[in-house]
Amino acid sequence: xxxxxxxxxxxxxxxxxxxxxxxxxxxxxxxxxxxxxxxxxxxxxxxxxxxxxxxxxxxxxxxxxxxxxxxxxxxxxxxxxxxxx
Length: 85
Prior knowledge:
- By secondary structure, this protein is mainly α.
- Helices cover about 60% and strands about 0% of the residues.
- The model has no long low-confidence stretch (mean pLDDT about 90).
């Protein structure tokens, strides 16, 4: 889907940055949808064309960190132990 929006001409030059405005707008939209719970991290990655490892870096660069509890750690530790690792 393609989305188009208008911005005032007097603002256009201040927000344009080497033609990166469409990408920045898409990233801002995707981040807001993630924060609002309307899309998942894998969907965000699909929307932005990012691999799983890139999603983590992208989110961290925008101040979004994964909630990782001690319970999560223990679950992973148990799973690894069951695998003999």
